[in-house]
Inverse folding.
């Protein structure tokens, strides 16, 4: 099952446009920049040849549908998997739209947050937030897939190290799987009382769910023509669903080699020590 979908270009609100007008844009020193960088991150991003432009945000309030399943069967909740993926994708698309409005080359330090709304247990807020940056020399080589700003959850320090190793970020890739774990029968539960025993049905359910999430993340990396994924994180949460339903969410930064090393700042290019002949 594929949980990918096409997200149309997001329309920025009037308030968002007004805020963005007060920020810097690529090649301009007018306006102020905003970021959630620490001082160390700020310094390392600049050492890597980039300038921060501003915080960019994408938000999506999403009603998650209902799906029923057999209580004694392991299976993916495909309706919920699609909802969780699509809502995050919408939030990411709106964050990228703000970055494009600033003519950014990329967004670093991206955080994806999910919060349940108190007024309705079926409504979740999804938010993507990060710092838009632009390369000081304006090299288009640093753009992401299809010429859009790259996205990455790497820190400023990690971005510096990635570039020093000869790689650059392409985009954040993710995979989601919401899975129902079968309930144990009464006799099986009683048989485990007082003794150590693996609950195989639970082991298999969690294993399968993690594998599905990881496989979908890897598929996105293949589609982006990345060489690999760094900084992979695997999150799990129930989001207050019914018992025995859990989500596994895999996310990381897809990377590719920098083809033209001359675009890297000189101090980032590894020094090659040649052997000295006697």
């Amino acid at each position: 099952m594929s949980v990918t979908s096409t997200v149309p270009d997001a329309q920025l609100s009037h308030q968002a446009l007004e805020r963005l007008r007060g920020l810097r844009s690529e090649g301009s020193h007018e306006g102020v920049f905003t970021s959630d960088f620490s001082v160390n991150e700020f310094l390392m991003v600049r050492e890597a040849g980039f300038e921060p432009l501003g915080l960019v945000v994408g938000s999506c309030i999403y009603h998650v549908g209902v799906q029923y399943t057999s209580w004694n069967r392991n299976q993916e909740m495909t309706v919920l998997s699609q909802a969780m993926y699509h809502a995050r994708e919408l939030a990411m698309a709106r964050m990228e739209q703000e970055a494009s409005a600033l003519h950014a080359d990329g967004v670093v330090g991206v955080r994806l947050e999910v919060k349940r709304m108190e007024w309705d247990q079926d409504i979740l807020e999804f938010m993507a937030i990060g710092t838009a940056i632009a390369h000081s020399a304006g090299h288009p080589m640093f753009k992401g897939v299809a010429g859009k700003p790259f996205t990455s959850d790497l820190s400023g320090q990690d971005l510096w190290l990635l570039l020093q190793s000869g790689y650059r970020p392409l985009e954040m890739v993710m995979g989601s799987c919401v899975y129902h774990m079968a309930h144990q029968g009464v006799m099986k539960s009683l048989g485990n009382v007082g003794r150590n025993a693996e609950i195989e049905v639970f082991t298999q359910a969690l294993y399968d769910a993690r594998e599905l999430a990881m496989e979908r993340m890897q598929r996105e990396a293949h589609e982006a023509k990345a060489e690999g994924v760094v900084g992979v994180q695997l999150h799990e949460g129930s989001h207050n669903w019914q018992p025995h339903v859990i989500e596994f969410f895999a996310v990381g930064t897809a990377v590719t080699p920098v083809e033209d090393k001359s675009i890297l700042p000189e101090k980032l290019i590894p020094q090659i020590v040649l052997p000295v002949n006697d």
Summary: The chain has one domain: 14-258. Residues 1-7 have pLDDT under 50 and may be disordered. Residues 14-258 form a domain with the Translation Initiation Factor IF3 fold (CATH 3.30.110.70).
